[in-house]
Design brief:
By secondary structure, this protein is an alpha+beta fold. It is built from 9 helices and 18 strands. The structure holds guanosine-5'-diphosphate and magnesium ion (MG). Belongs to the TRAFAC class translation factor GTPase superfamily. Classic translation factor GTPase family. IF-2 subfamily.
Length: 370
């Protein structure tokens, strides 16, 4: 519940606090300037000035989860890790992602046309790893702000010739706040000016201490440019993944998050979804954020049409009635009718929230003009 002090309310109403105190007194409430007022008192005073207090409708992104029941332990199976690459600008995030994709995807899957859908999967010794391809920090923060936690492991790329920089620290903070384990990739070791020891030294300040120095952080020296150390990095990701015991139940209706979405001229709303639990199939009735529909077509990261997608798999889908947003949650329903009802309700909720926001803004503008 919202509460304001007399002074804060006075400011919002563009009145003197003494005037508010007087009004309160006449209403039988003895108040001081720093007194907290409850919702009823605020409404009462506001109505005296002809201002209606509108309750902010918070569109809860996570409430879709309430349609999703818990899994039984015995139904859970090991799933691939979902990895986000973070680090300071120019330290080699994109090159690392490209290097992994090229050594693993195109070589292993001859003929496959890699397509940008915001995420991709590689296979290492029969085990899969999913990489989020979207600009690290932004994706991470937008998603987390919308209640989606999609990352299992963060690879922190630090250039060995540059060391720890502001966005390196930012990335560490994001990962730590989310409770996501960090693997440090010390990049650009091919450069003559590379100084990996310095990177390790600097990171100890942030509690990222290599195992050799008595800590528990994995450091992998790499050159994203030459490909050196990339295999080792992938091995380490699988190692951490095993320790984390990442599991999901493939034998149920899917739930997950939107990685990215856009409006395609020919195909309509297109969204890349990351399946986080269950299996997504063509024809599934689905609610995605404040949109809904039926999964019409699914394309994987290699541009191939697929009929289903299991846990930790990214797929691009069509069939939604509107464009969702990155970080939106999705849930598959048993029947189309329920999906439509829930979808419509959520859409109304979003429209209403937007209206309230607009109403409040115009009210503020009105006051400012007075
Ligand atoms: P991002 O901003 O973190 O995505 O960094 P980029 O991947 O775009 O890389 C920035 C620059 O560093 C580019 O010119 C890359 O070619 C270069 N670069 C990336 N990795 C390496 C590496 O391992 N060795 C060398 N020598 N250059 C690299
Ligand atoms: Mg980049």
């Amino acid at each position: 519940t919202e509460s304001l002090t007399v002074a804060e309310l006075a400011k919002k109403l563009y009145r003197e606090p003494s005037e508010i105190i007087k009004k309160l007194f006449l209403l039988g409430v003895a108040a001081t300037i720093n007194q907290q007022l409850d919702k009823d008192a605020i409404e009462l005073i506001a109505s005296e000035y002809g201002v209606e207090v509108e309750e902010k409708v918070i569109v809860d992104q996570t409430d879709l989860e309430t349609y999703f029941t818990e899994d039984r332990e015995e139904d859970l199976e090991v799933r691939p890790p979902v990895v986000t690459i973070m680090g300071h600008v120019d330290h080699g995030k994109t090159t690392t992602l490209d290097s992994i994709r090229h050594t693993k995807v195109t070589a292993g899957e001859a003929g496959g046309i890699t397509q940008h859908i915001g995420a991709y999967q590689v296979k290492v010794g029969g085990k899969k790893i999913t990489f989020l391809d979207t600009p690290g920090h932004e994706a991470f923060t937008t998603m987390r702000a919308r209640g989606a936690q999609v990352t299992d492991i963060t690879v922190l790329v630090v250039a060995a010739d540059d060391g720890v920089k502001p966005q390196t620290v930012e990335a560490i903070n994001h990962a730590k706040a989310a409770g996501v384990p960090i693997i440090v990739a010390v990049n650009k070791i091919d450069k003559p000016t590379a100084n990996p020891e310095r990177v390790m030294q600097e990171l100890t300040e942030y509690n990222l201490v290599p195992e050799d120095w008595g800590g528990d952080t994995i450091f992998v020296p790499i050159s994203a440019l030459t490909g050196e150390g990339i295999d080792n990095l992938l091995e380490m990701i699988l190692l951490v993944s095993e320790v984390e015991e990442l599991k999901a139940n493939p034998n149920r209706r899917a739930l997950g998050s939107v990685i990215e979405a856009r409006l395609d001229k020919g195909r309509g709303p297109v969204a890349t979804l990351l399946v986080q639990n269950g299996t997504l199939r063509i024809g599934d009735p689905i609610v995605v954020g404040h949109t809904y529909g039926r999964v019409r077509a699914m394309v994987n990261d290699l541009g191939r049409r697929v009929k289903e997608a299991g846990p930790s798999t990214p797929v691009e889908i069509t069939g939604l009635n509107d464009v969702p947003e990155a970080g939106d949650r999705f849930v598959v329903f048993e029947d189309e009718k329920t999906a439509r009802q829930v979808g419509e309700a959520r859409k109304q909720q979003a429209v209403q929230a937007h209206r309230n926001e607009t109403a409040r803004v115009s009210l503020d503008t009105l006051f400012e003009q007075m």
